[in-house]
Amino acid sequence: MNQEKIIVIDFGGQYNQLVARRVREANVYCEIYSYRTDIEKIKAMNPKGIILTGGPNSCYEEGAPTCSRELFEMGVPVLGLCYGAQLMNHVLGGHVCKAPVREYGKIEVTVDKSSKLFGDVSEKTICWMSHNDYIEKQAPGFRITGYTADCPVAVAECEEKKLYAIQYHPEVLHTQEGSKMLRNFIYEVCGCEGTWKMDTFVENSIKAIREKVGDGKVLCALSGGVDSSVAAVMLAKAVGDQLTCVFVDHGLLRKNEGDEVEEVFGPNGPYNLNFIRVNAQERFYSKLKGVEEPERKRKIIGEEFIRVFEEEAKKIGAVDFLVQGTIYPDVVESGLGGESVVIKSHHNVGGLPDYVDFKEIIEPLRDLFKDEVRKAGLEMGIPEKLVFRQPFPGPGLGIRIIGEVTPEKVQIVQDADYIYREEIAKAGLDRGIGQYFAALTNMRSVGVMGDERTYDYAIALRAVNTIDFMTAEAAEIPWEVLGKVSSRIVNEVKHVNRVLYDCTGKPPATIEFE
Ligand code: GLN
After folding, report:
1. How many other β-carbons are positioned within 10 Å of the β-carbon of residue 408?
2. pLDDT < 50 positions in the chain
3. CA 376, CA 211: separation in Å to the nearest integer?
4. Is 158 assigned a catalytic role?
5. Is the CB of 133 under 6 A from ligand 1?
6. What is the DSSP letter of 511?
7. What is the pTM of this model?
């Protein structure tokens, strides 16, 4: 199939996934490849355009990530962003060096509206900069089409060869007209038609899975979260009862969640798959007894999960494929997505069962962002309730209970979280907030209830807004709603006498607590 495609070449920048997102938002399919990818492979993909990302290195230093001159001579439009812009000029004979003044943050750029990139952009436009190096002299044949007070070559281009270099980051939302600029590159320079939509993605994926699987057997570990559910439904649609889903209830799910999962995927649900629910609550609780350290809890839960899963898999026998609900941010955060730095080990990636007898892994959502996964889910007719379910970590409530996990604490956090979610929904805020949940702190403090002294736990409420879960800020929930939630929690949930609201963003905090 010859779908129009833009290739993003990864030089280790932090915003590469955003670049891909913006392209897809403009209805053009986009994939990210490492800068080490062989140029012949890139040619063979027949891209409509190539975008070079930012990156932490200095392109003029020895050993810095680079690309061949040939990349710019294929007749395919190339857009370099930040490091990519510097590298393009460096490789083509311009001069890049340390800038006398580094620029960071929102900076006004004056652009030349005669450039194809800027036809509908304001002449003075706020852009987001983050660089120490700069293009001191653009490469021969390039003209300057944008500058700032401190950066003489903020944009340079060679229209004839369709090469464009932008020093700032049009992919981040702080660049006010960044999406327009990227669109202009995609449509005015690359001449894309914009035919990629979620429905075609779903349709093509289902077709591709069907071809790949043939009459093979497929096994999927279902967590009930959005990602694994969407992946499972995609597989169910592609191969029906060749798919077996194993759902391990580890006792660290949200209130009623196990039953909700069973409703959708179980024998009374709409899909024709084999569903196995394992009630392993006790196993997990006993393994977690006395363990306080977050990474150890994650490890124990992950390992036990795999063990339970393996036991089931053994009963099923050899399968051909194993499905994982890995999505793009998992890949990036684990440092497997390309060139960016490892942030934390992720439960979805690398935590593969050793002893499951399978030949190949299928990760149908590997290139999608969370909101794209949701779109795909809706496209396939998955109930909204499930598609807009709060993101939930693999280790579940185990990492939303700070310190030792006990069945009593699980119940406390389940009940508090349930009330919180109920009130947020009642207030009509549930779709407006990126993610919200209750966590149980390990702090006990003195309170007074019914004239009696109490010494009980504090619940922390968390709510963040985020578009892509890479960065987030604390949501501003009306005081009224928070007040209602906290009074209900202390009244209805035993052993809680205090409710706190978490005001930190990501970074410096993470969205989850542990
Ligand atoms: N490392 C390069 C610089 O400091 C590029 C930075 C970037 O791509 N954000 O200028």
Report:
1. 9
2. 1, 335-350
3. 20
4. no
5. yes
6. S
7. 0.69
